[in-house]
Amino acid sequence: MTGDMKPWRATVLTLFPEMFPGPLGLSLAGKALASGLWELEARDIRDSAVDRHRSVDDTPAGGGPGMVLRADVLAAAIDAAGMEPDRPRLLMSPRGRPLTQARIRKLAAGPGALIVCGRFEGVDQRVIDARALEEVSVGDYVLSGGETAALAVIDACVRLLPRVMGKLVSGADESFSEGLLEYPQYTRPQAFEGRTIPEVLNSGDHARVAAWRRAEAEALTQARRPDLWAARPNQNRPKRTTDG
């Protein structure tokens, strides 16, 4: 980095710090990490445990199965991370607000984030409230822990950082960039198992290509993500059939 610019920084609180950087150490994210375009710190929550067994969880109040991550231990881990006040604090949780590309763009435009990876049956609500954790979900399913979700969040942010992707247009012309799914992509060979590249893409007419791509993106969005389509203004346009 040059001047006084600080690199985008992800601080991850986890019981399994060895899971990081994982895939983030490869490809574009890995090259950007090695060149200092962003930074990653994985901190072990157990380092903040207060007993000799390094306990981090206990049984749920009121009874029930599983274990709950303790408020005092997690709060101490968050405090020890020394977070700047302008960095959001995320808790990966299936009950959180669904993560969107708009939220990713906002995170990527900031200084970074602290990401808490839950385990067991959940996290004591008191630490969520006391440390202002923003619960974020990557989908309507349950993972063994928040680490996989945290990897997804970080990857989505890092690819939008300046100088990470080769062409800025690569991040602007893809799924969710305008509330639409991305249009179909093709490349050589011209014919594959009897299927050919649509003629318009070989026409050299940039206006026709742009119109075709827009129409395909709209048709795919209507067919596969009616929720996204319904949220768009002026969405009641004639439908095309792309998705069978």
Question: Which terms would index this structure?
Answer:
single chain; 244 residues; alpha/beta; five-stranded parallel β-sheet; two-stranded antiparallel ribbon; 8 helices; elongated
Strands in their spatial order, largest beta sheet: 2-1-6-5-7
Summed up, the helix count is 8
Q: Given the C-alpha coordinates, what overall shape results?
A: elongated
Radius of gyration (Å): 22 Å
Largest sheet: 5 strands, parallel
Strand content: 15-25%
Overall pLDDT score: 92
Number of strands: 9
Structural class determined from secondary elements: alpha/beta
H-E string:
EHEEEHEHEHEHHEEHH
Give start-end ranges of low-pLDDT stretches.
none
Gap from first CA to last CA: 48 Å
Helix fraction bin: 25-40%
Model description:
This protein has 244 residues and is an alpha/beta fold. The strands form 3 sheets. Strands 2-1-6-5-7 form a 5-stranded parallel beta sheet. A two-stranded antiparallel ribbon has the order 3-4. The termini are far apart. A hairpin with a 2-residue loop joins strand 8 and strand 9 (195-196). The longest helix has 19 residues, at 206-224. The protein is built from 8 helices and 9 strands. The chain has helices spanning 27-34, 71-80, 101-109, 125-130, 147-158, 169-172, 206-224, 226-231, and strands at 8-14, 38-44, 57-58, 68-69, 89-98, 112-117, 134-137, 191-192, 195-196.
Brief summary:
With 244 residues, this protein is of the alpha/beta class. It is built from 8 helices and 9 strands.
Write the layout of secondary structure elements.
Blueprint: E1 8-14, H1 27-34, E2 38-44, E3 57-58, E4 68-69, H2 71-80, E5 89-98, H3 101-109, E6 112-117, H4 125-130, E7 134-137, H5 147-158, H6 169-172, E8 191-192, E9 195-196, H7 206-224, H8 226-231
Parallel strand pairs: 1-2, 1-6, 5-6, 5-7
Antiparallel strand pairs: 3-4, 8-9
Helix pairs in contact: 3-5
